[in-house]
């Protein structure tokens, strides 16, 4: 009678002279398995035409979520250019770090995993040393934070043992899977909302550093979707948070009926803007958070962090390691918030 089932993991393990668990770890490229064994088992599996059953993988993930493991799968959350003591950061960045960590931990726990944080560049933690630590602890899933600065990220690692995801729009080399806010769409949605309110002469104030980091997506969206294309370029100026010097003449000349700001402000910042642009009936932000006073787009960083965990764990479930030839990019919409 012909066999109804295809080649199973147990068949591969038997051919390789390993336990089923050992064969599973080898096929996943788990750091605890020698590279020579990983390659040998993968060759055996390919020769036997073994294919994992996604339904079984899903079932095992469900089983893991239903019980507490002595040593659950851990994801590394690697902070790049971000201090371990967040009290040295501006309050909105403190809020961002807190939200990201809480959301990542919560989602990881829901999926039967955990989060361990690492801070590159602090306490002598070089990329090489961190890579050794991850291998020693059997950590393969990797979340990389946005860089807290204008520069991109380049990490010289053996990526073949990792299932990596970067959070945010920071450029990274090599290019890996990413989850980020959809900056271009958020500006378009904001302009459409303001148009519906009858605002016809919007102006935007952006940070040059931020625009460089996010590939000028907000700037491009504002120019593209401005209600009056002939004046769109004139409707943008650049400065850094807390420094509106040099904008008075432009605001007086341009006479915007609404201002889009690339960051959130406190009451003092709002008072400055109202003094500089008394004709602006509305002032909104593209980076809403609860510690500011402006309404606008909430990038929903907690949702971004949760999706990054999903993407990393999905790679682990599919036995996908290293840098993909076609990395996945997930762009998520924000949500409009009025002041509460």
Quickly describe the structure.
This protein has helices spanning 9-16, 20-27, 35-47, 54-65, 91-110, 127-136, 183-196, 208-213, 217-225, 248-254, 267-276, 301-317; strands spanning 73-79, 113-119, 141-144, 153-154, 163-167, 172-173, 177-181, 202-206, 236-238, 258-261, 282-285, 296-298, 329-332, 335-337.
Question: Care to describe what's here?
Answer:
The protein is an alpha/beta fold. It has three domains: 9-51, no CATH class; 73-182 and 301-333, Rossmann fold (3-Layer(aba) Sandwich); 183-298, 3-Layer(aba) Sandwich (Rossmann fold). It has twelve helices and 14 strands. The chain has helices at 9-16, 20-27, 35-47, 54-65, 91-110, 127-136, 183-196, 208-213, 217-225, 248-254, 267-276, 301-317; strands at 73-79, 113-119, 141-144, 153-154, 163-167, 172-173, 177-181, 202-206, 236-238, 258-261, 282-285, 296-298, 329-332, 335-337. Strands 2-1-3-5-7-13 form a six-stranded parallel β-sheet, covered by helices on one side. Strands 9-8-10-11 form a four-stranded parallel β-sheet, sandwiched between helices. Strands 4-6 form a two-stranded parallel sheet. α2 (20-27) crosses α3 and α5 runs parallel beside α12. The longest helix is centred in the first third of the chain and has 20 residues, at 91-110. The model has no long low-confidence stretch (mean pLDDT 87).
